[in-house]
Amino acid sequence: MRNGRVTHEAAGAAGGWLEYSALRTPHSAFAMRLAHLADLHLGFRQYYRQTSQGINQREADVAVAFRRVVDDVIAAQPELILVAGDVFHSVRPGNPAILDAFNQFRRLSDALPGVSVIIIAGDHDTPRSVETGTILRLFEALPAFHVVVHEAKRLSFPQWELSVLCVPFAAFAGEPRPDLDVDPDARRNILLMHGELAGLPRDYDPGEHGIPTLEPSELHAERWDYVALGHYHVARQMAPNAWYSGSIEYVSRNPWGDLKQEKAQGRAGEKGWLLVELQQRTKVKFQPVELARRHVDLEPINASGRSAEQLDEEIASRVAAVKNGIEDQIVRQLVYEVSRLVARELKHEAIRDYKTRALHYHLDLRRPESRREVGVGGPGGKARTLADIVVEYLERRPTTPGVDRHHLVALGRRYVEDAERERGER
Question: Are strands 226-230 and 188-194 parallel, antiparallel or unpaired?
Answer without folding.
Answer: parallel
